[in-house]
Amino acid sequence: MLGAGAGQLGLLSAARSRGLFVIAVDRDPGAPGFRHADRRAIVSVEDEPALERLAEAERIDGVIAPGSDWPVGPAARIAARLGLPHPISPETAVLSTSKLRQRERLAEAGVPQTGWRVLSNPDEAVGLPALVRPPDRQGRRARALVRSPRELQSAVRAALRASRVGLALVEELVAEPVVTVSGFCRGGIVHALTMSDRLPLATVWESERGEGVPAVTARAVEALGIREGPVIVQLQIGAEGPRVLELAARIGGGHDAELCEGALGIDLNALALSTALGEDIEPWRLEPRWRAGGACIRFLDGEGEARRLEKAESVPGVEWVRVYGGSDRAGAVLAIGGSPAEALERATRAAECVRFRAPHAQAL
């Protein structure tokens, strides 16, 4: 498994439940997912030659990259070179991980998407505000929100330095609402399982803004050539309808699979493991076993030792409370309710129960 951070915890847990022998790879020795793996490898997921040597030496049966964009490419290429089953081809993985190639392909296919432009010179003018980033780097590396021409020049220079291809991607800064689709492809058919609203510290299902979203999602997935496996798509909802923000051929890194299971009883983590191992997906596995009134992932914000977890877990409707440590996010809460509003209220109440004690704090 490429990655052992917070975004991989759900799939690591699912692999352990299946009794699989898991080798987790992450450059962070303190990655929270290592405690759920049988073996850990402290290697950067960007070091593809080292990853391939490890995969070959361990005689693995499958390779998977949930929760973050860049490892999706190495996973597909390693699987192809070693003759392992994999849901997507290396060519499709490139379109999934390169934001520039992805946007170009969506434009060729006529899929509605948010505005974007490529720069190779920091002195070029673009409309502001905007988001500037290298098109081939993941996470927050050289990524900046700019609101003035001076900020733009500095941000473009940083993106150009960080980019492997010497380009900067400038994207329209979109306003809410943004809908996240967590889906699964089987035989070229896209199943849009959950459509959730993205909030500053939460993901709330079910969105009331889903009109037209499944159709645009299907067009985008088809344009990138994804026929099997999990997909995560973000769309901005405007007056002209849904527009694609970004798409990835993987499970979402914000506990999207766990949200899907809580909302519908569909185990996306188990489905992703099956496709990574070349197993057939029976149609019944994509059918809801139940339908909750609402579900919410609420992220925790804090640093240091977490306290009062028992109080948070006792809030009605709370399925679990997780604290990571050593992650960009301190943790998360999953709550179920009779409606999206109730699920958000319960998750927020649980999150507010948790108190973080800074590492330098002294006991009174």
Please explain how this structure is put together.
With 364 residues, the chain is of the alpha+beta class. A hairpin with a 7-residue loop joins strand 14 and strand 15 (331-337). It has helices at 9-17, 48-58, 72-82, 90-97, 99-108, 149-162, 213-223, 256-264, 268-276, 309-313, 340-353, and strands at residues 23-25, 39-41, 116-119, 130-133, 144-146, 168-172, 178-186, 189-199, 202-205, 229-238, 241-248, 294-300, 305-307, 318-323, 331-337, 355-357. Helix 1 crosses helix 9 and helix 3 (72-82) runs antiparallel to helix 4.
Characteristics of this structure?
single chain; 364 residues; alpha+beta; eight-stranded antiparallel sheet; four-stranded antiparallel sheet; 30% helix
